[in-house]
Specification:
single chain; mainly alpha; about 0% strand; elongated
């Protein structure tokens, strides 16, 4: 009976991990990461949008605003690189735990928590940076930037 419960719990954990992995795009280095506003389902343009001359002109960004946004990005960049690497490391640690012939339930569940925590830390750091960007923009610029959102490809896709 205990073996069946263990197998059921591990199967549920595996499905959960696979589901979370399928919902999350693989982490990219912060220099290439799709920096955006919003909750991940909507928002502004992707990439280093504040260096795109056409968008800068469309938004009416001043040279000071561009400089302030770039400064915030540079200040956040190393932390984002470290957090992205930490997430990749935790995911790499989990792989062999799940591939074992007889996965250790306690180890797998603990590692799932570490992966989730690493992902949360990365998302929080990215959100803090983006909130700083938003603080540099006027309300009118913010609305224009939101209107530049890339087209959505599905209800849960980024």
């Amino acid at each position: 009976m205990r073996d069946r419960l263990t197998i059921s719990v591990l199967a549920l954990a595996l499905v959960t991990v696979l589901t979370l992995s399928a919902q999350q795009p693989p982490p990219q280095p912060p220099t290439e990461r799709a920096f955006h506003f919003g909750n991940g389902r909507e928002g502004g343009p992707r990439g280093r949008w504040w260096t795109d001359p056409a968008l800068v002109q469309k938004l009416g960004l001043t040279a000071d605003q561009e400089k302030r946004i770039d400064s915030q990005f540079q200040q956040s960049r190393l932390k984002l690189i470290d957090l992205s690497a930490a997430l990749q490391k935790e995911e790499a640690i989990m792989e062999p735990l799940l591939e074992a012939d007889r996965p250790d339930e306690a180890q797998v569940l603990a590692q799932i928590d570490r992966v989730a925590q690493a992902r949360a830390e990365l998302e929080k750091a990215n959100a803090r940076m983006l909130l700083g960007f938003r603080g540099v923009l006027t309300q009118e610029q913010w609305k224009k930037l939101q209107a530049e959102a890339p087209p959505r490809r599905g209800p849960e896709r980024r």
